[in-house]
Automatic annotation (TrEMBL):
Swiss-Prot/TrEMBL cofactor(s): Zn(2+)
Protein name: alcohol dehydrogenase
EC code(s) of this entry: 1.1.1.1
Entry-linked Gene3D superfamilies: Medium-chain alcohol dehydrogenases, catalytic domain, NAD(P)-binding Rossmann-like Domain
Family: Belongs to the zinc-containing alcohol dehydrogenase family.
GO cellular component term of the entry, any: cytoplasm
InterPro entries with a match to the protein in the record: ADH-like_C (IPR013149), ADH-like_N (IPR013154), ADH_Zn_CS (IPR002328), ER (IPR020843), GroES-like_sf (IPR011032), NAD(P)-bd_dom_sf (IPR036291), Rhodanese-like_dom (IPR001763)
Record keywords: Metal-binding, NAD, Oxidoreductase, Zinc
Source superkingdom: Eukaryota
Molecular function GO terms recorded: alcohol dehydrogenase (NAD+) activity; zinc ion binding
Domain Rhodanese: 163-212
Length: 350
């Protein structure tokens, strides 16, 4: 098919932003890459961090952000066998990896020291046409709506991986910090689908209503609670605390509170990445309660397949609001103000 030479994109021209809506060239796929005409792309807090240069990881500039892109394959390299023109595909955070290092050989591709990251080290999905390594792109069933699946490609896979890493078993309780946000609203659903009981922690009536609607058994509003730790424990079996904690917060304080309400032998899984934050835990209680504290990044290729299958089976209903691609700066403003319940999905011009 004939492809245009130019396309519309949101381009961060310098660290700190703002993104500029402008025309740029349409990229051409390499031998092992696919070119996806993006129909919809989610907006993740990571995209805001990338624009601001918050992390100790070199970011490409100028940059097209975004890493939750769902669309249609319109071109592919000569070595690509897993996709055909017209297939539906997703471009995720992990755009590519070397496939040769020890981590890649052990299916730990996200840990590859030479990984390429969509919307960070390579241009991402806030554009009409985006390229990605075919090996790491996700195959999306054609009966799955592309707007609804977009948030699953990062937020969904990330929290699904975190729940697996927590070791929590069906019937046990998981406390989800940031439960009403983009990742949290998916984490509540994946946890419920995996047979876990959920205590949501977040702020505001809108987020309480969302979490309860999605299946959280209890909700602790940190903006109203006089003692978050005791309130979380009170909503767990026998008041012993959560078996697992998923930390999805974008500020540091919740990371310091988790050891107070996780039960003995429980797991604390850090997923959120607030800038310049540290994990701190009292040594005595960490030792005598045998608490497991760990980080969880993004899922591997199989985690991605499983997370999408949960959605395709109707077990996940990602709450999202739509906006046009040109409105990205407004969404970043809302994100910084903490006013987004669920996820925003951008509709990319045809």
């Amino acid at each position: 098919m004939s492809l245009p030479e130019k396309q519309w994109a949101q381009v961060v021209e310098k660290k700190g932003g703002p993104p500029v809506y402008k025309e740029i060239p349409v990229p051409k796929p390499g031998p092992d890459q696919i070119l996806v005409k993006i129909r919809y792309t989610g907006v993740c807090h990571t995209d805001l961090h990338a624009m601001k240069g918050d992390w100790p990881l070199e970011v490409k500039m100028p940059l097209v952000g975004g890493h939750e892109g769902a669309g249609v394959v319109v071109a592919k390299g000569e070595l690509v066998t897993g996709f055909e023109i017209g297939d539906h595909a997703g471009i995720k955070w992990l755009n590519g990896s070397c496939m040769e290092c020890e981590f890649c050989r052990q299916a730990e591709e996200p840990l590859c020291p030479n990984a390429s990251l969509s919307g960070y080290t390579v241009d991402g999905t806030f554009q009409q046409y985006c390229i990605g390594k075919a090996t790491h792109a996700s195959k999306i069933p054609k009966d799955v709506p592309l707007d609804a699946i977009a948030p699953v490609l990062c937020a969904g896979i990330t929290v699904y991986k975190g729940l697996k890493e927590s070791g929590a078993r069906p019937g046990e309780t998981v406390a989800i910090v940031g439960a009403g946000g983009g990742l949290g609203s998916l984490a509540v659903q994946y946890a419920k689908a995996m047979g876990l009981r959920v205590v949501g922690i977040d702020g505001g009536d809108e987020k309480r209503e969302l979490c309860e609607k999605l299946g959280a058994e209890a909700f602790v509003d940190f903006t109203k609670s006089k003692d978050v730790i005791e309130d979380v424990k009170a909503n767990t079996p026998e008041g012993l605390g959560a078996h697992a904690v998923l930390l999805l917060a974008v500020s540091e304080r919740p990371f310091q509170q988790a050891t107070g309400y996780v039960r003995s032998r429980g797991s604390i899984v850090a997923i959120g990445l607030p800038a310049d934050a540290f994990l701190k835990a009292p040594v005595f209680s960490t030792v005598v309660k045998m608490i497991n504290i760990k980080g969880s990044y993004v899922g591997n290729r199989q985690d991605g397949v499983e997370a999408i299958e949960f959605f395709a089976r109707g077990l996940i209903n990602a709450p999202f609001k739509k906006a046009p691609l040109k409105d990205l700066p407004k969404i970043y403003e809302l994100m910084e103000q903490g006013k987004i319940a669920g996820r925003y999905v951008l509709e990319v011009p045809k």
